[in-house]
Amino acid sequence: MLLEVKNLHKRFNDKEILKGIDFSIDSGEVVVIIGPSGSGKTTLLRNLNFLESADQGTLRLQDQQIDLANPTKEQVQWVRRHTAMVFQNYNLFKNKTALQNIAEGLIYGQGIEQKKAEAIALQALKTLGLEEQKDHYPSQLSGGQQQRIGIARATVLHPEIVLFDEPTSALDPELVGTVMDDMQHLAKQGQTMIVVTHQMWFARNVATRVIFFADGHIVETGTPTEIFEHPQKERTRQFIVTGGKLLVRWDD
Ligand SMILES: Nc1ncnc2c1ncn2[C@@H]1O[C@H](COP(=O)(O)OP(=O)(O)OP(=O)(O)O)[C@@H](O)[C@H]1O
Ligand SMILES: [Mg+2]
Fold first, then answer.
1. Which of 13, 68, 89, 244 has the most neighbouring CB atoms within 10 Å?
2. Would you tell me which CATH number, out of the four given (3.30.1700.10, 3.40.50.300, 3.40.50.410, 1.10.1040.10), belongs to the domain 3-90+160-246?
3. Whether 10 contacts 17, CB under 8 Å
4. Three-class secondary structure of residue 17 per DSSP
5. Whose CA is nearest to atom 16 of ligand 1?
């Protein structure tokens, strides 16, 4: 088992947002988290790499057992070195080029010499077919290109797990596919991923496991077929049926 979370609780003010979350992930799994807006999905991801501090819970990543409410500085750094997060709004450095954005983490996070880091970054851009954009600043890139560079920036660091928080929700519909293609490619290469998304076709076709999350807890988890075709819980069924009308392009 690569990652195990136990009894994760988080409240904001007096409202409990995460009500005791338990789950585990094996190496190579693509776990897609679906669920209604405001249910706590982003909060869950942010707690996993200490962008928020949990009130209670434990996390085990590889052989490290960590108290999520009281991590040491070293543990926080260790988890951040072994995970990467891709956000909805790209979060690229605006004053750095595409190439520099990808090279940045290699240089400052991993101590790789600048020339070598830039060579790795260039190779990543070539693989994506974005070599021509290497000297472009984020303002000169489309949203889709920015997000693809955001994903490359995260994955050149070879994290154990990449956490995606609705990576395509800020994109024009015709750009969603390009980003999802990159993610599907990563999945095929065996990258372990946790993906929060409203793209149901991705959940259906790429996930090894789907978690349906609502009201601060995991309602149900299963294979895409189990969740989409034979949901066990009424709450899941409701969401899938509504989602079916509003969100799903089943045949994609
Ligand atoms: N920093 C914060 N302070 C107070 N409340 C917060 C904070 N961050 C999130 N919340 C609240 O926690 C709840 C869960 O928010 P969260 O962003 O995790 O939901 P979500 O499932 O990611 O929703 P969406 O699908 O819309 O992104 C919401 O009610 C939100 O208002
Ligand atoms: Mg969210």
1. 68
2. 3.40.50.300
3. yes
4. strand
5. 40
Ligand 1 neighbours, Cβ below 6 Å, are 12, 17, 37-43
- Among residues 189, 187, 198, which one has the least CA distance to residue 244? 198
Residue 141 Cα to ligand 2 midpoint, Å, equals: 24
Per-domain residue ranges of the chain: 3-90+160-246
Tens digit of each residue's pLDDT, the chain (252 residues):
999 999 999 999 999 999 999 999 999 999 999 999 999 999 999 999 999 999 999 999 999 999 999 999 999 999 999 999 998 887 899 999 999 999 999 999 889 999 999 999 999 999 999 999 999 999 999 999 999 999 999 999 999 999 999 999 989 888 899 999 999 999 999 999 999 999 999 999 999 999 999 999 999 999 999 999 999 999 999 999 876 544 544 444
> Reading across the β-sheet that carries 15-25, which strands appear in turn?
15-25, 3-12, 56-61, 64-67
Of ligand 1's listed atoms, the one at least distance from the Cα of 44 is 18
* Ligand 1, atom 29: closest residue by C-alpha: 38
